[in-house]
Amino acid sequence: MKKIELTIPRLGESVESVQLVRFTKNIGDFIQENEVIAEVSTDKVDSDVPSTNSGKIIEFRFNEGDEIKIGEIFAIIEISDDNSSTKNEPELVEVHQSNSTPKVNQESIQTDQFLSPLVKSIVQKENIETNDLKQIKGTGRDGRISKNDVLNYIQNKSVTDIISSNSLTNNSVISTASFGANDEIIEMDKMRQMISKHMKKSKQTSPHVTAYVEPDVTNFVKWREENKASFEAKYKQKLTYTPMIVECVVRAIKDFPMINVSVDETETKIIKHSEINIGIATALPNNNLIVPVIRNANQLNLEGLANGVNTIVNKARNNKLSPDDVRGGTFTISNVGTFGNLMGTPIINQPEVAILATGVIKKKPAVLETEFGDIIVARQFMYLSLSFDHRVVDGSLGGVFLKRISDYIENWDVNTQI
Fold first, then answer.
1. pLDDT over threshold 60, residue 234
2. Which of 135, 160, 20, 38 lies closest to 92, judged by CA?
3. Which residues constitute the domain of residue 319?
4. Of 5, 180, 332, 377, which residue is least crowded by CB atoms under 10 Å?
5. Is residue 372 one of the residues assigned to a domain?
6. DSSP one-letter string for 66-104
7. 344: domain CATH number?
8. Which keywords fit this entry according to its UniProt record (predicted)?
9. Taking each helix axis from N to C terminus, what angle separates 218-235 and 395-410, rounded to the nearest 10 degrees?
10. Is residue 86 part of a domain?
11. Which residue has better confidence, 165 or 76?
């Protein structure tokens, strides 16, 4: 019998460690080659880790919630001598995405015990005091406190210890959601919890301002209708409005590069990005949301943008995104027109400083000035709304940037060759 060490494979160029969500098998169980043995999580993507061999599991070296470095041994299996072939690195299968995990303020948790980022997040979320934390007996490796240890502590702690009439004063109010006997209580899945935290953090971080314009998109619509069939025949890519809008946004960002920035954590420095990486907000079949990124969009022509949009959207909807697919965005576009909405007030995707929402295209009567006087004609219109971070983007910059996008869309050249 031989022993095989299983290690955490690489999940992307920028990923250095993962958190262990759970093992799918127990010690002593037999596992097949390529069968999932563990679920791990980065700050963006949850992934399944399959076994490189068939054999009997004899050791786990980590517990749920522990942080594991890429390449580190996390389990050992025992295999027969005639099944000793191994692979250098197990294949990763991405299963679902989550918006980035909020960073925990580690200074607020004063303890000599090692706590994984996941445990720290739960401790901070539940407002567990340092003295209470010392009462939790860790069942993890070397006595570490695991996620289950903290959750069991929260569950077992009497409600009367947390909320008592003696703790309420005239100056303190506890607000909780009320529900009736027939109301349904739905547990948020992990991804929805991460979206919730990300959206809340954005509103708390950035003072949001939203501006609106309504460009005449008649030529924009006309050009696409006349060229979408030949575009698909030539490039084997469907031509939607999204890559056309991305092209206009990229041109406007080049004109106003201070939109393509982030604010550092100290809020004393502005990071001006050299790359223009456009995030495309994508609704998933399970009603969750993910923002995959088209990298270096400023270096792509319309064909490249169409390919980029179609690729990342399809990967998102089929749970095939890698961690690198959702990192590094510098500006986001959200198409609320997909749902028939006229306009939206989008929430900034941190750490970016602006996000564009595009509404549904509608035919409306419009007044045109001619040499013979004003006439009323039918034209196509679409609302654009830009939410921006007023810490670094003033109303004048946000306004002229949005108007520039509108101008590029409105003045789309109908003679453009594909």
1. yes
2. 38
3. 207-410
4. 180
5. yes
6. -EEETT-EEEEEEE-GGG----SSPPPEEEEE-PPPPPP
7. 3.30.559.10
8. Acyltransferase, Lipoyl, Transferase
9. 70
10. yes
11. 76
CATH number reported for the structural domain that contains residue 16 in this entry: 2.40.50.100
Residue at 289 is within a domain: yes
- Please tell me the distance from the alpha carbon of residue 75 to that of residue 61, in angstroms, as a whole number: 6
Assess if residue 288 is contained within a domain.
Answer: yes
pLDDT at 258 over 90: yes
Question: What percentage of the chain carries pLDDT values higher than 90?
Answer: 57
Contact 38, 72 (CB under 8 A): no
Is residue 385 within 8 Å of 337, Cβ to Cβ? no
**Which of 97, 129, 161 is the C-terminal boundary of a domain?**
97
pLDDT higher than threshold 60 for residue 98: no
Q: What is the mean pLDDT of residues 407-411?
A: 98
Exposed/middle/buried for residue 14 (C-beta within 10 Å: 0-12, 13-18, 19+): exposed
When divided into structural domains, the chain yields a total of 2
Q: What is the mean pLDDT of residues 254-271?
A: 95
Q: Is 359 exposed, middle or buried (0-12, 13-18, 19+ CB in 10 A)?
A: buried
Residue with tokens 């319309």: 302
Task: Select the highest-mean-pLDDT range: 143-147, 219-223, 324-328.
Answer: 219-223
d(CA 215, CA 221): 12
The number of C-alpha atoms within 13 Å of 162 and in the hemisphere containing its C-beta is: 12
